[in-house]
Amino acid sequence: MAAGDENSHILSGLTNQLPDRDPEETAEWLESLDTLIQERGTERAQYIMRSLLQRAGAQSVGVPMVTTTDYVNTIPVDQEPEFPGDEEIERKYRAWLRWNAAVLVHRAQRPEIGVGGHISTYAGASTLYEVGFNHFFRGKDHAGGGDQIFFQGHASPGMYARAFLEGRLTEEDLDGFRQEKSKEGHALSSYPHPRLMPEFWEFPTVSMGIGPMNAIYQAQSNRYLHNRGIKDTSDQHVWAFLGDGEMDEPESRGLLQLAANDKLDNLTFVVNCNLQRLDGPVRGNGKIVQELEAFFRGAGWNVIKVLWGREWDDLLERDSDGSLVDIMNTTRDGDYQTYKAESGGFVREHFFGQTPQTKELAAHLSDDDVWNLKRGGHDYHKVYAAYQAAMDFKGKPTVILAHTVKGYGLGTHFEARNSTHQMKKLTLQDLKDFRTHLRLPISDEVLEADPYRPPYYHPGMDAPEIKYLMDRRRELGGSVPERRKEHTALTLPGEKTYEVANRGSGKQQAATTMAFVRLLKDLMRDKEIGQRIVPIIPDEARTFGIDAFFPTAKIYNPNGQNYLSVDRDLVLAYKESISGQIVHAGINEAGSVAAFTAAGTAYATHGEPLIPIYVFYSMFGFQRTGDSFWAAADQMTRGFIIGATAGRTTLTGEGLQHADGHSPILAATNPAVVTYDPAYGYEIGTIIKSGLERMYGPDSTDPNVMYYITVYNEPIVQPKAPENIDVEGIVKGIYLLKKSETEGPRTQLLASGVSVPWALEAAQILADEWGVAADVWSVTSWNELRRDAVAAEEESFLHPENEARVPYITAKMADAHGPVVAVTDYMKAVPDQVRQFLPNDFASLGADGFGFSDTRAAARRFFKIDSHSVVVRTLQMLAKRGEVDANAPAQAIAKYDLLNVNAGTTGNAGGEG
């Protein structure tokens, strides 16, 4: 292995693979640099070094990119700003916070409760948070509008402990930790869950990887609001607190380039590098800080390392030959973890004892002094310097890599142990030692009286420390976290906006995707809400017909369009703009959902509603980014999710991984998602109008929902809205589309989306060729019908004294006689959702199994969901009831050659795949 490869996890290997042909000259250059630093300081040295690197590049001198630096603090001691606070006071109440956070979890783990919690994360990160709370995090009453802070999920006890000191929470509230129903009214959610604590938490973060991704798009959304003139967000900052283990999630790193490309200097990541994940070291044989430094630097971020506390400053200054830095560089993370689980004597022997120089360097220190050499993430001065540098840095986002110890201060059973993440309670001796370490006025007798319920500590609101704490928050704009739901009122569009959806397509054919896009165009033209519509698309605008918006609405790009567009002379030219309205995320569904979440919660985050409309391949929605939609639900996102090219057989040429036959089922698992599968443009208009009224209408009682609407790329003649349009039926999920005038055995055909025309064709065939009267129902939402029916069952179950409410679908079809045949372009489980709520004989036709590439007609015949399959299935059910000839089904199978995929005729070849 080459030397450069061997040290790649430590340094960039600038000289490792090059011979030194004149060591004496090299020494002279290095001595010159040392003299420059001593006489002019590190800031001047930085400029000279940057100038030399720049000139070297211009002269074609091959100098590799410096991706990692020595394992020392990025900010030199002579560039550290003066700490502005009273460190002694802050340290004192930080001890109270750390005690209360640990006790909160410990008390929740007592035998009769046992609901768990996490003690060690906040114990190790408290300094990182407290420097922010005392000096940086701005609340919503700040003149600039306040910051957005993504707290690390497992550190939530620390946020509750601070809210307790601030008087926002009581002891009874703390004792409700993780007991949200049994302690209702005094309950605290396990992690940051806005939906569970809607006045406290703003951003859900514990589904790891989603927090960093959403923080990036939150910072982008802030700039979007500003650049489009909706709100001045220039003095607002986004902070994301993350774990070094969490950075292994692909989502944690996968969108870093967006932040760099957009120059989001309103964003700071703080990575709590305690070197441990949930089960053990993050990189036992390597160095996660160095790895992350290289990764972030390569992605275009400003990187600040906070590795060593001020106690190391003297040692590093006296490290004349670099022996100490070399040991810091070469010590692996697994060893760093072990050092903090041992003792000062162990560290002296195994760390400083590696060379005679470093052994002598630490000779004047006692074992206690060695043990108290802090890591940088526990030093107020070092952390403050890093935060201030991040705020001052312009042109790039900043990541702060802070070296900490997991379980810091909790004692030998907790500190740096592999099992510390799962440890939820302290022994009596742990409590006593922790109390002593924090210098709390709590006696042994009090702790011994009930070890399961050690007391919380609060000196009273008049204590000077609490007054100081409260004064700092007042100066910074109030308490955080805090969520507010008051927002600018919206005037919703009138009926005229929906005319394009209601008038149909005349003699022309138009897919429901196009019907939706035409409606979207008019929504964006609306004088009241048009500017608040945020179209969000991955890299498929032309597939969905949204490229028509490029020239007018333009694509949002904070850097504008600084190149000569290849299609500038075309009507539908690709146009980017600082004030563009369209968020074009590229081939990036995860980022699109993050953008959707940021826009869909602007009503609460900023008090300025945005209406995101995210359009995507239906197959790549809930299947690919379901966890992100769940986080969006937790954050109470409002907006429209458009699953385009829906259905298993409509996207004829694309095949298996593009063929959506199940997204409504996946969507049904999210309680905040309202799912619709409309067949016609007027249904889409009715649904979107209802959705806007639910999200932002004055009479809404449940506005925090996302509407998932599936649309198709198969052109049909879009009919005009019926004169007496059944608005209630469309919104609730089912209405009678066409009642048969035929005299004969009666059946009911239920269909949704693209399958409605098949049902209509089947009804005509049944009437003309078999004398069967088939009523056709458009089911706009199987999911909502089921939710309503299940809710009715629940009401009846819990309140038998009341007359049972009849489910909507049961009541709607009370007079609908004959068997039911339900057909969709999805798997049978979609229509089967309503089967139990109808007394009729019921059969489902669906596209179960994998999709494939073929013509629509062949695919539908293969899955037996085409018009003739509906006819045959209907005849079978009627024959079973004795209402048609027993031989009719077999005759129909033969007549339509039902087992031959090449005999299918349902659908057309129009629409691009």
Automatic annotation (TrEMBL):
Q: Which gene produces this protein?
A: aceE
Names of required cofactors: Mg(2+); thiamine diphosphate
Q: What SUPFAM superfamilies does UniProt report for this protein, alphabetically? A: Thiamin diphosphate-binding fold (THDP-binding), TK C-terminal domain-like
Described purpose of this protein according to its UniProt entry:
Component of the pyruvate dehydrogenase (PDH) complex, that catalyzes the overall conversion of pyruvate to acetyl-CoA and CO(2).
A molecular function (GO) term: pyruvate dehydrogenase (acetyl-transferring) activity
This chain belongs to the protein called Pyruvate dehydrogenase E1 component
Q: Which residues form the signal peptide?
A: none
Q: Which PANTHER family match?
A: PYRUVATE DEHYDROGENASE E1 COMPONENT
Which Enzyme Commission number(s) are listed? 1.2.4.1
Catalytic reaction annotation:
N(6)-[(R)-lipoyl]-L-lysyl-[protein] + pyruvate + H(+) = N(6)-[(R)-S(8)-acetyldihydrolipoyl]-L-lysyl-[protein] + CO2
Domain Transketolase-like C-terminal positions: 733-866
Say if the entry is tagged with keyword Magnesium.
Answer: yes
Which amino acid positions bind Mg(2+), per UniProt?
A: 244, 274, 276
Instruction: Name all Pyruvate dehydrogenase E1 component middle domain ranges.
Output: 495-715
Q: Where is the composition biased (Polar residues)?
A: 9-18
Q: Does the keyword Oxidoreductase apply?
A: yes
Q: Where is this region: Disordered?
A: 1-24
